[in-house]
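Hey, I was hoping to borrow your eyes for a little while. No rush at all, and the record is pasted right below.
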Amino acid sequence: MSPRSRFAVAALSATAVAAAPAAVMASTYVVRPGDTLTGIALRHGSSVQALVDANRLGNPGPLRVGQLLEIPDPTRNLPSYAGGSQDLDTYTVAPGDTLWVISRRYGVDPTALARANGLNVNALLPTGAQIQVPGRLVRVNALLTHVAQRVEVDPRLVKAVAWMESGWQQDLASPTGAVGLMQIEPYTGEWISQFLAHRTLNLRIAEDNATAGAMLLSHLLWMHEGDTARALAAYYQGDASIGEHGLFLDTQQYQRAVLDLMETEQA
């Protein structure tokens, strides 16, 4: 993503308010075979800990099929800078899909899903039709938080970098070929896969893209002895370029913008 576009994203969101009204997301969920707390949390824009707390699960063991879970309001954890942004995912209907099936897959209220598409909740869906699914922002927020915690990087840093890079848009590609939420170049993704992840990361899958970015940030923080500003400069400009040219002006702007976004969230 171009520097101009990055800074436009930050500027446009500076005065925004929280998006994705809670009524869009489902408030309860009935456990189905194969469900895990992590999977349920990510679909509903929540976290495992939030589900544990809301349902007084204590030290959770295996979920029971048919168990009713309360889903806490996911908008409470959405950074203010993400408010007012495009909040829809686009889903292409597969054979056998209904609005009820799609709503379970994305953790949204079926009535809200129907309303977003001007349909009756029991409408027949033709294969290949495109459905607009609300609640994108809380789902991405939950995914980035989950990945950051797994990689042991401050979630505020991962989310702020992803916001500056792509506005949390996985389908975004830059003119140079950088891909996804964290705008990872394919050759960088190959290096991360080989030396940091020790498995192949598919940058076109949101979780793998977020994982690549979070792992790169973790590596850069280690290289720069925990100095977040220097790690951000390396993420944006590259250490080799910094060593040869010093910090470019847009790199300094990038550092300040990301750090400012982080400050809008409490640690």
